[in-house]
Design goal:
about 500 residues; alpha+beta; 5 strands
C-alpha cells in the first residue's frame, strides 16, 4: 500500500466557483456504491391449501403481539407467561445480544463525524554527548507541548455510510431475533402448559378408572367366594386394576417432567416449583379461516432474514468503495516551548492543515476477492430468506391441516368412546347375569379406556396445533387489529412480498 500525504496550501477560489465546489463535494458525499435493494422474490400461493382465500400485504410489524396467549382464557397460563417474560434466562441473553448490536451501530456511526484528540507532553530530556549530529545546544532541556488534532473522513464513496446502513440492518435483524426468541419461548411455555393440562385430564380419567376396576375386582372376588365364578376371573380383574395403576404412575411421571420444564422456562428452580392439578377443558380459540398473509409476513424470523439480505447488499457498497481513494482532512495545532512560563504565547504556536489521500496501488487481488465475497454473501442471504418464507408457509399449512383433520377425528373418537361405554355397560350387565365371561368385560373396559384416553389425547394435540399455528403466524391478533390492517392502504401490496422495514 502506498500512502501519499502532503500538507498543501489550497488556492483561493473565485467567489462564483466556491458554491459549485461545495455542491460537488455534497453530491459525492451523498453517493452510495451499493446496488439498489430489492427484496428477493419468493414463490407465493394464491391461497392456503386448507383454508382460503387470503390477502397479500406488506409486513405489519407494528401490530401488537403481546398477550396472545390470553385468548385461551386461563389465568394460570397468563401468570406463567408473565413470569417467563420477567425471568427467562434465554430471553435475557437474547436482549443482551440485541444491546450489543445497538452499540455496534453507534460505533460505526461515529465514523460519520470528525475525531478530535488533545495531548499534553511535558518532558525533561537529556541528549547523549556522543549522539550523532550532536550540536552545541544544552544537553539537558525541557520540552513542553500542548496540542490538538482534528481528523475527518470525507467518505465521498459511501464506505462509512454503507457500513452504518449494514450495521442498522443487522441491528434490526437482531431485534427480530429477539422477538423470535421471545415468541418461541412463549409458545413453548403455552404448549408445555397445554400438555400438562392434558396429562391432568388423563390422571383424572385413570383415577376414575382405577376406582371402577377396584369395584370390578371386588365384584369378582365376591362371586368367586360364593362359587359362582372361577379364580381366573379374579386374576383377570386384578391384572386389569394393576395395569391401570401402572398407567397412572407413568402418567404422573410424565407430568412431573413437564412441570420441571415449565419451571426452567419461568426462571425457577424445579425443586421449588409446582402447579396444582386442573382438569377443566381449555377452550379452542376460533381462528379466522381467511388468514391474511399480513399475519405470516410479520413473523420475526422472516423479518430477520429479510434484514440480513439488506445488510449483505449494503456491504457490497463497502467492498466497492475500497477501489477508490480514502480522503481525509487533518488539522493539528498547539504550542511548544522549552519553558513552562509563557507557554501559551504567539511565538510558541505551531499548526498544520492538509488533506490525506490513501490509495491501494497493488493488493494482490484482495479487493476483488472481498467484493466477490460480498456478492456471494448477498446471494446466500437471499436464498436463506426464501427458505425461511417457504418454511413459514409450510408450517401454516401443516397446522391448518392438523386443526382441520384433528377436529374431524375428535368427533369420530367421541363417537367411538360413547359406543365403548355402551359395550362396557352391556358386558357388565350380562356378566352379572352369567351370560358372558369376565373376559368379555375386560375386553370392553380396555377398549373403553383406550377410547377415552384417545379423546383426551386428540383434544391436547388439537390445542397444541392451535398454539403452533399462532407461532407460525408470528403471534396472536384481534379483530380490531385485522380491521386496522385492512383499512391501511399502504400495507396492501400486489406482490405478497415483505417490504423494507427501515
Amino acid at each position: 500500500m502506498v500512502k501519499v500525504r502532503r500538507s498543501v496550501r489550497l488556492p483561493a477560489l473565485p467567489p462564483m466557483r466556491l458554491p459549485a465546489v461545495l455542491a460537488s463535494v455534497a453530491a459525492l458525499a451523498a453517493c452510495s456504491l451499493a446496488p439498489k435493494y430489492d427484496v428477493p422474490a419468493t414463490p407465493v400461493a394464491a391461497q392456503y391449501k386448507t383454508y382460503g382465500p387470503w390477502t397479500s400485504a406488506q409486513p405489519a410489524d407494528q401490530i401488537d403481539r403481546n398477550g396472545w396467549w390470553k385468548m385461551y382464557g386461563d389465568t394460570q397460563l397468563d401468570d406463567l407467561e408473565t413470569r417467563l417474560l420477567a425471568n427467562n434466562t434465554d430471553l435475557r441473553a437474547a436482549y443482551a445480544h440485541y444491546a450489543q448490536a445497538q452499540a455496534f451501530v453507534a460505533q460505526v456511526e461515529s465514523g460519520l463525524y470528525p475525531t478530535v484528540s488533545a495531548n499534553a507532553v511535558p518532558l525533561r530530556e537529556r541528549q547523549s554527548d556522543t549522539a550523532p549530529l550532536r550540536g552545541n545546544g544544552p544537553a539537558d532541556y525541557n520540552s513542553v507541548t500542548l496540542g490538538a488534532q482534528v481528523n475527518y473522513n470525507l467518505d465521498l464513496w459511501g464506505r462509512v455510510r454503507d457500513s452504518v446502513l449494514a450495521g442498522k440492518d443487522e441491528a434490526q435483524a437482531t431485534k427480530a431475533d429477539l422477538a423470535s426468541v421471545k415468541l418461541s419461548l412463549e409458545v413453548e411455555l403455552a404448549d408445555s402448559y397445554i400438555r400438562l393440562r392434558g396429562l391432568d385430564q388423563q390422571t383424572d380419567l385413570l383415577n376414575a378408572t382405577e376406582t371402577a376396576f377396584a369395584k370390578a375386582l371386588q365384584l369378582t372376588q365376591t362371586l368367586h367366594s360364593h362359587g359362582i365364578v372361577s379364580g381366573l376371573d379374579v386374576s383377570r380383574a386384578q391384572t386389569q386394576l394393576s395395569s391401570a395403576q401402572s398407567q397412572l404412575s407413568q402418567n404422573l411421571a410424565q407430568r412431573a417432567l413437564m412441570e420441571h420444564a415449565i419451571a426452567v422456562l419461568v426462571g425457577t428452580s424445579a425443586a421449588e416449583f409446582s402447579l396444582p392439578q386442573q382438569t377443566a377443558a381449555i377452550a379452542l380459540p376460533a381462528i379466522p379461516t381467511d388468514l391474511p398473509s399480513t399475519l405470516l409476513q410479520r413473523r420475526p424470523d422472516v423479518a430477520a432474514a429479510e434484514r440480513r439480505v439488506a445488510e449483505a447488499n449494503a456491504k457490497i457498497g463497502v467492498a466497492r468503495a475500497a477501489y477508490f481513494p480514502n480522503i481525509g482532512l487533518t488539522l493539528q495545532g498547539g504550542v511548544q516551548s522549552a519553558a513552562y512560563s509563557g507557554l501559551v504565547s504567539a511565538p510558541n504556536l505551531f499548526w498544520a492543515i492538509g488533506p490525506q489521500l490513501v490509495q491501494y496501488v497493488f493488493d494482490g487481488g484482495l479487493r476483488r476477492a472481498q467484493l466477490d465475497a460480498a456478492k456471494a454473501a448477498t446471494e446466500e442471504a437471499g436464498d436463506r430468506y426464501r427458505g425461511v418464507v417457504l418454511t413459514a408457509f409450510e408450517q401454516v399449512e401443516d397446522n391448518l391441516a392438523l386443526l382441520s383433520y384433528l377436529g374431524t377425528a375428535l368427533g369420530q373418537q367421541r363417537d367411538a368412546a360413547a359406543a365403548a361405554q355402551t359395550s362396557v355397560d352391556l358386558a357388565l350387565q350380562q356378566y352379572k347375569q352369567g351370560t358372558v365371561g369376565y373376559l368379555d368385560v375386560v375386553q370392553a373396559q380396555t377398549v373403553q379406556l383406550d377410547a377415552q384416553r384417545s379423546v383426551l389425547d386428540i383434544q391436547t394435540r388439537q390445542l397444541s396445533a392451535n398454539v403452533q399455528l399462532l407461532d407460525a403466524l408470528g403471534g396472536g391478533w384481534s379483530s380490531d387489529e385485522l380491521a386496522q390492517v385492512a383499512a391501511t392502504p399502504e400495507l396492501v401490496a400486489t406482490t405478497g412480498q415483505p417490504g423494507k422495514t427501515q
